């Protein structure tokens, strides 16, 4: 642990009030995570420390365009990491956002809402298997965002799908207010549990993810007709939201979960056009009775 900390001297600089120092620290972080032999040995505590620094890097970032750019860059860090480090990295993100959420003031909340949206979207893209053979790299992530039509020709990595959906179940779609991870074998899993135990998941964070998950699923092609794999993934996500609606003790989360599942873009729900047509037919009717012709 001590050696790992000495190899990350840029952590404090991520929260610097000097933009140039923050930018340099972000470059150092990118280089650090690109080193497979280092990134693969990141502990849950390391991920928490890094995300704490990244949280304050965004906190100190002013103006809309730089904020949008930084959110995208932070979300796409999963494409730099080796496959085996992504879950722990994203778990560190959700833990950090859960711990810091209630301390975000109204003037800064918008950029953190955007960060959560970008991370959810990046996670959905990460589940895909590129038809060009790419998987889990920066080029794949950028290409998926630049050309949405490419998503329709790609498949889905079953292992990555399980990882992302498990994270959703553990964090924003968790029924319990506190993190409650299933007991698993292995020292790494036990370490995760010890570091993250007692973390409360704010209602506001859950509500935001419920608001955006259909949007991000649509962008990555999960709502496309004719993709059987995507339909199964969508059903699994919907099942998580349905379980949250039925099990939560928060009225706000229950209502928002129900509204999320009623989104007209989801399979089986009426589109707005169909609903409007039905409403117009109902408005012009008089209960099905006929009183004859008017004089």
From TrEMBL:
One GO cellular component term noted in the UniProt record for this chain: preribosome, small subunit precursor
Keyword Amino-acid biosynthesis found: no
Biased composition (Gly residues): 285-295
Subcellular location field: Nucleus
A family per Pfam: Nop52
Biased composition (Basic and acidic residues): 147-156, 256-267
Residue numbers spanned by region Disordered: 134-156, 255-295
Keywords from the UniProt entry: Nucleus, rRNA processing
Residue ranges the record marks as coiled coil: none
GO BP terms, alphabetized: rRNA processing
Principal cellular location given in the protein's record: nucleus
The keyword Chaperone is annotated on this UniProt entry: no
Family: Belongs to the RRP1 family.
Protein name per the record: Nucleolar protein,Nop52-domain-containing protein
Lineage: Eukaryota, Fungi, Dikarya, Ascomycota, Pezizomycotina
């Amino acid at each position: 642990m001590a050696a790992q900390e000495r190899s990350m001297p840029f952590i404090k600089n991520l929260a610097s009030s000097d933009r140039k120092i923050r930018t340099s620290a972000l470059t150092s972080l990118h280089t650090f995570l690109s080193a497979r032999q280092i990134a693969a040995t990141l502990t849950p505590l390391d991920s928490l420390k890094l995300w704490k620094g990244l949280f304050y890097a965004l906190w100190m970032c002013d103006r809309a365009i730089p904020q949008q750019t930084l959110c995208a860059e932070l979300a796409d860090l999963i494409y730099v990491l080796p496959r085996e480090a992504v879950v722990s990295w994203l778990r560190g993100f959700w833990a950090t956002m859960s711990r810091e959420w209630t301390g975000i003031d109204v003037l800064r909340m918008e950029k953190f809402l955007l960060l959560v949206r970008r991370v959810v979207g990046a996670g959905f893209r990460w589940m895909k298997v590129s038809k060009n053979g790419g998987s889990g790299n920066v080029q794949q992530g950028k290409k998926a965002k630049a050309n949405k039509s490419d998503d329709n020709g790609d498949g889905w990595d079953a292992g990555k799908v399980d990882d992302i959906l498990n994270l959703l179940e553990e964090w924003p779609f968790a029924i319990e207010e506190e993190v409650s991870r299933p007991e698993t074998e292995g020292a790494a899993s036990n370490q995760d549990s010890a570091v993250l135990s007692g973390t409360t998941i704010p209602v506001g964070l859950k509500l935001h993810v419920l608001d955006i998950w259909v949007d991000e699923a649509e962008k990555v092609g999960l709502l496309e007709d004719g993709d059987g794999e995507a339909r199964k993934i969508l059903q699994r996500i919907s099942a998580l939201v349905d379980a949250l609606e039925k099990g939560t003790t928060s009225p706000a989360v229950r209502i928002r979960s129900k509204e999320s599942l009623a989104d007209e873009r989801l399979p089986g729900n009426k589109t707005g056009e169909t609903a409007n047509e039905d409403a117009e037919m109902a408005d012009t009717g008089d209960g099905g009775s006929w009183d004859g012709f008017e004089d």
